[in-house]
C-alpha cells in the first residue's frame, strides 16, 4: 500500500454501523474486529487524512427495536444513543493501543466519560491530526446515526462522507438474498431517494443533497480500500448531484 500518493480528500467523515463491530457474533463488540478497524484508521491518519467518525449503536440497542418490545420510544432512543457512546469508547481504546490520538465527542453531555460535542473544538482536533469520534448521534430521539453522519460531515466541512457497508456499494436490492441484484457504480441523491435504495435514510441523503456533499459507499472489509478512496480511486458507489 502506498502512502506517498497525494490524497484527493483531506478531510472525510466515515460512518460505521454498530453492526460493523459485531464480527462473527450477533451482538456486542468483537475486539479483534475493532482492532482491525483501528488499524485501517491508523493508516489514514499516518497519511495525514483528517478523519471524523460517526459510529452507530445497532450492535447493542436500536430505538425502534426497544420500542417494539414495549419501551417508550424516546427512552429507547436515549438508550440507542448511549450504545453509540460505548462503541465510540471501545474504538478509542483500540486507537490508543496503536498510539493514534483520538477524541470522543458526545452530542449528549456525559463529560466525565468523554468530551461534549463543540464544533469549533472538533475542527481544532482534526487540524491537529486527532481522529474525532462523534458519539450519541445527533443527541435527539427519532434520528439515526446516518443523519448524524450527514450533519457532522457538513458541520466540519468534510469533503466526502464515506459509508461503510457489508457489500461493495449500492445495489438494486440486497445482493445477499437476491443474486440478480444490480450494482450501481454511480447514482444521484434523487435516484437513491426515488428508488428507496436503503443505503442511508432519506433525511441523511437529503441533507447531503442540499449541501452537495458527495457520499461514497464501500465494503469496509477490504483492507486498504478506504485509503484508496481518499486517493481518488473509484471504489464502491459514488452518490452526487450529477
Ligand atoms: N439514535 C437517536 N438519535 C440519533 C442517532 C441515534 O435516537 O441522532 C438512536 C436510535 O434509537 C438508533 C440508535 O441510536 O436506533 C442507534 O443508532 P443507529 O440505529 O443509527 O445505529 P446503526 O444502525 O448505525 O448501528
From TrEMBL:
Enzyme class label: transferase
Any one Gene Ontology BP term: 'de novo' CTP biosynthetic process
Binding site for ATP: 15-18, 58, 62, 165, 171, 174
Pathway in which the depicted protein is active: Pyrimidine metabolism; CTP biosynthesis via de novo pathway; UDP from UMP (UMPK route): step 1/1
UniProt GO cellular component terms: cytosol
Catalytic activity: UMP + ATP = UDP + ADP
Keywords attached to this entry: ATP-binding, Cytoplasm, Kinase, Nucleotide-binding, Pyrimidine biosynthesis, Transferase
SUPFAM superfamilies: Carbamate kinase-like
InterPro entries attached to this UniProt entry: AceGlu_kinase-like_sf (IPR036393), Asp/Glu/Uridylate_kinase (IPR001048), Uridylate_kinase (IPR011817), Uridylate_kinase_bac (IPR015963)
Signal peptide (UniProt feature, chain positions): none
UniProt activity-regulation remark: Inhibited by UTP.
Domain Aspartate/glutamate/uridylate kinase: 11-219
Residues noted as binding UMP in the record, renumbered to the chain: 57, 77, 138-145
Pfam family, one: AA_kinase
Compartments where located: Cytoplasm
Keyword Cell cycle: no
EC number: 2.7.4.22
One GO MF term: ATP binding
Complex and partners: Homohexamer.
Similarity-based family: Belongs to the UMP kinase family.
Function statement: Catalyzes the reversible phosphorylation of UMP to UDP.
PANTHER family reported for this sequence: URIDYLATE KINASE (PTHR42833), URIDYLATE KINASE PUMPKIN, CHLOROPLASTIC (PTHR42833:SF4)
Name of the protein this chain belongs to: Uridylate kinase
Gene source species: Candidatus Nitrosacidococcus tergens
